[in-house]
């Protein structure tokens, strides 16, 4: 219960950081999707069970609330990414820091492709597709960079404790 509360507080802290602080310093395609990185972390490393599924969906809904896109788009995408990572988790070496970087990069690409497909199915907006496609690779690279910085900092701290 305490772990779930900590993850929820971290989710709100990352949301505030992503929505208010980072856009002030970084331009749009280079703002990392911190909530997606938390979903990746929950899917690969944490053992939270069904609560993780609910947290992933709620993170997506919070992201939709503040991003101005259709409500449920990120919620569905985050949920799909979380569930796929939970299925693949047993076949992967989850203690690898390189894995987190690669999974963060691929998850950002999958999130972009899922968003494009859902917008193609349910939206009539034509001008959004080139914008999303142009921002997809820089967003994935920035997410991989942030994931590498976080895993390096946590592994350095773990070595320091030992």
From TrEMBL:
- According to its UniProt record, where is this protein located? Cell membrane
Q: Which UniProt keywords apply?
A: Cell membrane, Cell shape, Membrane, Transmembrane, Transmembrane helix
Listed GO cellular component terms?
Answer: plasma membrane
Q: Which Pfam families match?
A: MreD
Membrane topology category: Multi-pass membrane protein
* Transmembrane regions: 6-26, 33-57, 69-88, 100-122, 128-150
Query: From its record, what is one biological process in GO terms?
Result: regulation of cell shape
According to its UniProt record, which protein family does this protein belong to?
Belongs to the MreD family.
NCBIfam families recorded: shape_MreD
The name this protein goes by in its record: Rod shape-determining protein MreD
The lineage is: Bacteria, Pseudomonadati, Thermodesulfobacteriota, Desulfuromonadia, Geobacterales
């Amino acid at each position: 219960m305490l772990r779930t509360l900590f993850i929820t507080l971290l989710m709100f802290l990352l949301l505030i950081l992503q929505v208010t602080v980072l856009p002030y310093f970084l331009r749009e395609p280079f703002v990392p999707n911190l909530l997606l990185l938390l979903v990746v972390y929950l899917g690969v490393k944490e053992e939270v069970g069904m609560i993780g599924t609910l947290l992933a969906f709620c993170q997506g809904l919070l992201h939709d609330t503040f991003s101005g896109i259709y409500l449920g788009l990120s919620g569905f995408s985050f949920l799909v990414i979380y569930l796929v990572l939970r299925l693949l988790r047993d076949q992967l070496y989850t203690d690898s820091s390189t894995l987190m970087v690669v999974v963060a990069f691929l998850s950002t690409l999958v999130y972009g492709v899922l968003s494009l497909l859902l917008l193609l199915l349910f939206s009539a907006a034509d001008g959004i597709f080139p914008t999303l496609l142009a921002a997809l690779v820089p967003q994935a690279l920035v997410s991989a960079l942030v994931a590498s910085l976080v895993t390096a900092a946590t592994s350095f701290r773990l070595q320091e404790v030992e």
